[in-house]
Design goal:
There is one protein chain. The protein has four domains: 13-45 and 201-342, 3-Layer(aba) Sandwich (Molybdenum Cofactor Biosythetic Enzyme, Chain A); 48-69 and 177-198, Alpha-Beta Complex (Molybdopterin biosynthesis moea protein, domain 2), CATH 3.90.105; 74-160, Molybdopterin biosynthesis moeA protein, domain 3; 353-426, MoeA, C-terminal, domain IV (Beta-clip, Beta Barrel), CATH 2.40.340. 19% of the residues lie in helices and 29% in strands. It contains eight helices and 26 strands. The chain has helices at residues 13-17, 29-38, 181-189, 228-238, 253-266, 284-291, 324-342, 398-402, and strands at residues 46-50, 63-64, 74-75, 79-82, 93-101, 115-119, 131-134, 138-141, 144-147, 159-160, 171-173, 194-198, 202-208, 212-213, 224-225, 242-249, 269-273, 292-298, 301-302, 306-312, 315-320, 353-358, 369-378, 384-388, 405-409, 421-426. The strands form seven sheets. A six-stranded mixed β-sheet has the order 7-4-6-5-9-8, with no helix packed on it. The longest helix has 19 residues, at 324-342. 36% of the residues are buried.
């Protein structure tokens, strides 16, 4: 179903993982990210879409400017278009007013010695004029204008030149650039109505577990509502991908095998939640050894230690933990970047990070990276302060709702005292 390139012949996930620092029982976070990224090949199919439909899409080819921007020399402010050589070195300069130049209604004549044209922001520079005096440094007189001494200091001041922003034939946006509102507006300013973008990534997802039921179904004893599918759908929809929600799949080998086969045949990426830990009823590992190629990782992190990545046929596979918070953390830290890369993004920027002062101590064991849900704010002096949301249990989804960031504590870090400077990873708009 997908159109991604296959990895290099003879390369397998297991071969990629056979490095000196590979430990299937405690893979460092950065190493896991690196291994995933090495196996990704972006989609290649291209669509032509109107710019109104291009928001959030990824450019499949460079956009070349068809014209200079701005298209003519113009004024950067309201004032007077003059000849710099006419301005007196000392004292005021008196000039004759010969017309006006408005944005969209230029002065038609030529500016001669001793003349000035009233000009407004964006107005075309009259022929013969080379400098603009801001209106605050001039005063009108009957039929003319007086320019204050030193009103401008150099030739060409307050003048914007044709092609200053973009030259005709120049690259406006490169292939792999995401199209946000600013890019859409810029395309419109160039008269470009359509662009070539990569097709949307297709992502299939389902939850596993006999204890799970869908919303709207009465709960029996021991059952819980499946929140993970709704969380995953929300994160995928926010990123603009096409989704296939396959519901809850029971812990029955035949059902799981059919679900995996269907998902892989209809999507570029398959995401599951649950079934990748060490429980006796977790059949996912065995099935994926049969259907595809997967290295199961126990990431040295909290929350979200159990995580699987691999391929099923031509589809990429991410097996996320079953706990609700772990689903969001692993999606944010591993899946999000991988999906953006698969969708054709180039040079995906690192997740935004800042330093903040911890307002209360945090207990932590060295040996793993922790992502503590937290709230960052500013004090009256503008300093960044951060506090955790409370209980950090991986089943407490409300902690993600309250949080606007993660406090990221590295592998070597132990207990952290109040007042310490810590790394904070912002969440707003990203998940």
């Amino acid at each position: 179903m997908n159109d991604q390139s296959s990895p290099k012949p003879g390369t397998t996930l297991r071969e990629l993982s056979c490095a000196d620092d590979y430990d299937p029982n405690s893979l460092p976070v950065e190493r896991a990210r690196e291994l995933i990224r090495r196996f990704l090949e972006p989609v290649t199919a291209v669509e032509r879409v109107a710019i109104r439909a291009a928001l959030g899409r990824t450019l499949a080819e460079d956009v070349i400017s068809p014209l200079d921007v701005p298209g003519h020399d113009n004024s950067a402010m309201d004032g007077w278009a003059v000849r710099f050589d006419d301005l007196a070195a000392s004292g005021e300069t008196s000039l004759a007013r010969v017309g006006e130049s408005f944005a969209g209604r230029p002065f038609e004549g030529e500016l001669r010695k001793g003349e000035a044209v009233r000009i407004f922001t964006g107005g075309v520079m009259p022929e013969g004029a080379d400098t603009v005096v801001m209106q605050e440094r001039a005063s009108e007189t009957p039929g003319g204008v007086r320019i204050a001494q030193g009103a401008v200091t150099k030739l060409g001041q307050n003048r914007r030149f044709a092609g200053e922003d973009l030259k005709a034939g120049g690259v406006v946006f490169a292939r792999g650039q995401p199209l946000n509102p600013a890019e859409i507006g810029m395309l419109a300013s160039l008269g470009i109505g359509e662009v070539s973008v990569y097709r949307k990534l297709r992502v299939a997802f389902f939850s596993t577990g006999d204890e799970l039921v869908s919303v709207g179904t009465p709960l029996a004893q021991g059952q819980i509502y499946d929140s993970n599918r709704y969380t995953i759908h929300g994160m995928l929809a926010r990123m603009g991908f096409d989704t296939l929600d396959m519901g809850v799949v029971r812990d029955v080998p035949g059902d799981l095998e059919r679900a995996f086969a269907t998902a892989a045949a209809n999507a570029d990426v398959v995401i599951t939640s649950g079934g990748v830990s060490v429980g006796e009823a977790d059949y996912v590992k065995t099935l994926l050894d049969k259907l595809g190629e997967v290295v199961f990782w126990k990431i040295a992190m909290k929350p979200g230690r159990p995580l699987a990545y691999g391929r099923i046929g031509g589809a990429h596979f991410f097996g996320l933990p079953g706990n609700p918070v772990s689903v969001m953390v692993t999606f944010y830290e591993f899946v999000r970047d991988a999906l953006l890369h698969l969708a054709g993004r180039r040079d995906t920027p690192p997740l935004p990070m800042l330093k903040a002062t911890l307002t209360a101590p945090i207990r932590k064991m060295p040996g793993r990276t922790e992502f503590q849900r937290a709230i960052v704010s500013r004090d009256d002096a503008g300093n960044a302060l951060v506090r955790v949301t409370g209980d950090q249990g991986s089943g407490i989804l409300s902690s993600m709702s309250r949080a606007n960031c993660f406090v990221v504590l590295g592998t070597a870090v132990g207990n952290v005292d109040a007042g310490a400077s810590v790394d904070v990873q912002l969440l707003d708009g990203l998940v």
